[in-house]
Amino acid sequence: MDLKKSGHQKIDWVKKYMKVINSIKEKYYDEKPFKGKKISMSIHLEAKTAYLAIILKQLGAEVSITGSNPLSTQPDVVEALKDYGLNVYAEKTLDEGVYWKNIDKVLSQKPDIIIDDGADLGSRYIEKYDTNSLLGICEETTTGVMRYEALNKKGSLKVPVIAVNNSKMKYLFDNRYGTGQSTWDGIIRSTNTTVTGKNVVVGGYGWCSRGIALRAKGLGANVIVTEVDPIKANEAIMDGFRVMKMDYAAPIGDIFVTATGDINIITKKHFRKMKDGAILANSGHFDVEVSVKDMKEIADSIEEIKPGVEEYKIDGKSLFLLAKGRLVNLVNGDGHPIEIMDLSFSLQLEAAKYLLENPDQKINVKPVPDFIDNKIARIKLETMGIEIDTLSKEQQKYLNKGI
Amino acid sequence: MDLKKSGHQKIDWVKKYMKVINSIKEKYYDEKPFKGKKISMSIHLEAKTAYLAIILKQLGAEVSITGSNPLSTQPDVVEALKDYGLNVYAEKTLDEGVYWKNIDKVLSQKPDIIIDDGADLGSRYIEKYDTNSLLGICEETTTGVMRYEALNKKGSLKVPVIAVNNSKMKYLFDNRYGTGQSTWDGIIRSTNTTVTGKNVVVGGYGWCSRGIALRAKGLGANVIVTEVDPIKANEAIMDGFRVMKMDYAAPIGDIFVTATGDINIITKKHFRKMKDGAILANSGHFDVEVSVKDMKEIADSIEEIKPGVEEYKIDGKSLFLLAKGRLVNLVNGDGHPIEIMDLSFSLQLEAAKYLLENPDQKINVKPVPDFIDNKIARIKLETMGIEIDTLSKEQQKYLNKGI
Amino acid sequence: MDLKKSGHQKIDWVKKYMKVINSIKEKYYDEKPFKGKKISMSIHLEAKTAYLAIILKQLGAEVSITGSNPLSTQPDVVEALKDYGLNVYAEKTLDEGVYWKNIDKVLSQKPDIIIDDGADLGSRYIEKYDTNSLLGICEETTTGVMRYEALNKKGSLKVPVIAVNNSKMKYLFDNRYGTGQSTWDGIIRSTNTTVTGKNVVVGGYGWCSRGIALRAKGLGANVIVTEVDPIKANEAIMDGFRVMKMDYAAPIGDIFVTATGDINIITKKHFRKMKDGAILANSGHFDVEVSVKDMKEIADSIEEIKPGVEEYKIDGKSLFLLAKGRLVNLVNGDGHPIEIMDLSFSLQLEAAKYLLENPDQKINVKPVPDFIDNKIARIKLETMGIEIDTLSKEQQKYLNKGI
Amino acid sequence: MDLKKSGHQKIDWVKKYMKVINSIKEKYYDEKPFKGKKISMSIHLEAKTAYLAIILKQLGAEVSITGSNPLSTQPDVVEALKDYGLNVYAEKTLDEGVYWKNIDKVLSQKPDIIIDDGADLGSRYIEKYDTNSLLGICEETTTGVMRYEALNKKGSLKVPVIAVNNSKMKYLFDNRYGTGQSTWDGIIRSTNTTVTGKNVVVGGYGWCSRGIALRAKGLGANVIVTEVDPIKANEAIMDGFRVMKMDYAAPIGDIFVTATGDINIITKKHFRKMKDGAILANSGHFDVEVSVKDMKEIADSIEEIKPGVEEYKIDGKSLFLLAKGRLVNLVNGDGHPIEIMDLSFSLQLEAAKYLLENPDQKINVKPVPDFIDNKIARIKLETMGIEIDTLSKEQQKYLNKGI
Fold this sequence. Notes:
The structure is a homotetramer. Chain A is α/β, with parallel strands linked by helices. The first copy, chain A, has 2 domains: 2-170 and 336-383, Rossmann fold (3-Layer(aba) Sandwich), CATH 3.40.50; 176-331, 3-Layer(aba) Sandwich (Rossmann fold), CATH 3.40.50.720. Chain A contains 17 helices and 15 strands. In chain A, the strands form 2 sheets. Chain A has an 8-stranded mixed β-sheet with strand order 9-8-7-10-11-14-13-12, sandwiched between helices. Chains A, B, C, D: This is Adenosylhomocysteinase.
């Protein structure tokens, strides 16, 4: 009962700051573009994603939804969501069986469109189900896009995938500014330690990790970046950061954060070199970047010493792993800020609508069309009351003329 | 039961990162400098302050303690603290009567030393009690120091006051870096909104407020500062901020934060000009900077719409007041980061010890002696493994020689 | 005589910090890959570009060279360059006839490869000469690439063009960090005014202009960005800048800088609104961004009041135009920092070598191949003594595997 | 002839941006407060200081002036200054004899007031002359104030000294923002190397050096600070910088800058550890911070390889010393930005006027009275068109009331 009230409070709150999707909803409300369509969603189940699902329903869709990560599901939001007439199959759980059972329940509706976050939902559908009726998949994350591209390379991608992640209004904002703020929110909230004056080691210098590095610097840390890409490594240096191998960074770091999309960024040999009291967190999609497997293997003891913080005793030192190595911003916090998800979900909505209106897509992983990206950007400016210049005919002509 | 466990977890956690006070405790442990002495404390009652009280007890003192702010008391910490053999009189409450009754309970021990946060405890003692046995007061905050100085000006200060707040290792760190980080923690945690891209209006440009402005910038905000001091106003401009009257800032700001130590920074006329959805928070000691009184007078309705967030409907717009206008970092968060309080509380401990060892102080508000400030600074560097240069005789001589 | 000595000093100096191209030169020195080949160059004629030309000569090429901008040619460098056995046709001049005559002199050698900066050299060759023997053009700038792409769209591009500008080790570094530092060097050097505390208006938020904005912020300015692209406008906001129409920025700005690649960013109506004492500079390739034409039309008087600074009296106010609206970093300074040009010119060298070794390119504007980009990045890290991580097989496999 | 024209151009230019002193001059113009008074000045002789001297003359004073540093004197400004009817005794020279002869020429006027920069002028007067008629000295720099305080400690200070340096509108602005910008101007201008991506080692973390560190960070450097004061060391860490002994920093740094007011910050043992190509600069008052004496002792060769840059060959490596270890911002640049000196010189003018109007000062080194500091701050805000809030009676009362 209280759970449901809390869930409604959260949803009512995010609604106030999701001005872009509110503006889009208003425009489409009479038209009901998703009428008669079935949408399957797998997405971190908290208030903002809930609100996307609600709007899809309000614009006519039949929506089935589950959580994209076993630990990020918020039970109060799940309860509230049921009041809106959605089919919700989600539990906060570590039981993998339950996780996949919920995914199958969602998929059993035979969706017209899949909205995915990490590619578990869509790839399951492709592997196990008849995809005939499916118009396409909209994928939210870097990790998910990489997985669908791998499928495509193998020739197993049976439906078009819109890489929502690859649109500028997504990755330039969600990955960078969203991850940047929410990662530090998750870390600070669960540790109450200073960021200022700390040696922060950031694994990677892609959009997510550079957001994390940028905000660490903004919070007063001395930041070290590790990378495998020499160009990104040079960028990190030019941005004022130290760049080195994780081997060298391990004994220096006070706080480690990974966001690379790859496995084994921090492993056994690194843990052994770390300082007593080092804090470890991950903002990448899966819990494989800080190798929890390795930590478990070499730990003398493991104890959850406060919510979201586990103490691993290794070689007589204490290492503190946050959120079990899963997405620290979602598990130990409330995920990305509302206004950031507003952009990502507005893109999801428009991408889903685009698939509906352009059903004969080539089977491929493709970006959101530019006109959608620009449209979302313009609406966002409008909601902030910001006016920008427009190219005059003369200026347009000059750009095109060449010699 | 669970409450007590949670309290112990919190205290055990902060202990790990309070390395300076741990180092001091170790040094004094055999000596027990506070043996036979009674210390009365009024301080925000959460894990870090609890740990100071515990250490004072472990170094020999009889400690009575209450919360310095009715809303910042954490019940789990209160429960755990009782296990350590301290006299704890604290409740999270809005009942002023209860608040003062607890203060009187603490004072009834007839303290040798008072450790104060905001001057409620000490000024009550001066006003209502016989201060003969009291060696002095150690005051933590800007607000408290201002109040004791006012008492002194009136000739009513009966005991020496050590302005812990005025030592560099306090105000340069706690006020600036501590308030900077914890204020944004409190705001982000309770709103989940972006700071990046927002117009943030900071009331004041003293140490606290410049910490808030610095971190707002570090988090990507566009910061506006309001000030009454023309020199500080010029500094804010040179630091890249816009400076203007609150009148002009009111309609521009998305988030407002005050930390001035004065009243009525944001008042009726400002609320009326604000944007729908504006967020209001305060990090100053009392809930008088954002005039809650004014807000209540002109609001059509007031509702707590989620924990720590009240919606005030004013002229058809929604303004969101955080933490009822009280210290947002303490009420909506866990207060200053551990390592920052480690510095402040190490100063408190050393200041209390200094009063003990130098009982015949002039009645005055005086700073912590420089040697203590430097000592804490050196221990902090040691705990971080950082070595710095030392003046050579030649260099020392050059500095002294003049022509 | 002294002129020549000064030129040699400058070239000897840049040689010390161009470590990437030095490393490449060493590797190719015995091989002499450009032996028997003729290279025509048009490039800002100062020490760093001179050094590229010298190395091309040392690696076997016959080099003819002129300046890509009438005002950026440094006479002392021209004199010194002649000592190295290059054909130099360059004068610092405002006489357009002389400019084009020098270009024709260079082209008369019938080049195998053209190295261009702004597309004047290559497009002249395409228009007026027989391009049969030309293997291709390497173009340095955004502006030049846009011009060649326009030619290509019209079907008039007769040779392959390598868009050196579009390689990451160019635009991420030269355009952003190079322009950022050198623009402010040019402005500060010629005005001796503060940047800190000023309202700086940056026209555009492409790589060049965001470098300018980033450094303005780093120097303490309050930065306003104007844009026509809604996505870039949103990025600028998220980076903490104000974004508005130039119309609104005109009366606020203390210093205006443009770098858009387009015309008429600041025009008549803007000049009329500006503050007395406003400073105007451009870092875009051509002197058309701050409309000098418009300024001249409405000015009551124009006077060069100190080197590189002209006072335009407009409506009783003084506006100060730097470098006649031409590239302020080159005309009022020494251009991009050495280490930045080291990257760009290493790319030029490798791109030219690539054209030589792969003569049958499709006629098109194409990027530098990735392997060259990565190679330059790796050499740069080596010269700084920085080691980075390498993908393990396991990590590589994970990235490729998908589900 | 051309020299004189160039000097006038420079003075006319700075006049445009020295709005605070212009505003003060206007107010006092009819009154002529310095009428019949003799003012001796020793100050870096460039356009801004020249303008202060001119205004003093225009307000009635008889002014004799010399340069406070043998290398910072600009001959063109000297020539122009003579046109204004001042007694100018200054040459750009390394001849110490000439330097002191000029000082004596200035002092021979028997000044009523001395305006000093570094304490050479005033301490000479105290040592060698009859100081009876002297009302006092206004000292500009940290170094000078330290020297006068040392004199005072020895009981040899015969006249009151106003420590203009110690007023907030001086050291918070000139030392921090002024030194910060102008130091990097001097370094970039004479080297054309990147600051971004470099390891910059800053000697000290006082107001000057923290300005240098702040701007280095703003320009993209990775900054290392060395300090002897443990509190400042902690501040530097909290500001995100690395702090270490110069011993450890020596082999890491690409660019070294000192500004401590002490000797031997970088010495023999450090030079031997440095990287080939390291750049050394000083912004402290005297050329003793980077020990040029030590460099000379261990160098195999020394050569000025371009204006303002000397190559020292040490142990087979090249170290580049800028500006002969003297103030790099003045010797290799044009000194502090105009608007910064406008504040400092407005303080000088008001301090001199204060000495005149309050002739019976205690002999002491004392700060500029607060009312002057605030006055300058308010005029500065006015010139920028910035309005700030004012304390209401209610607010004033609250601040004073205590309990």
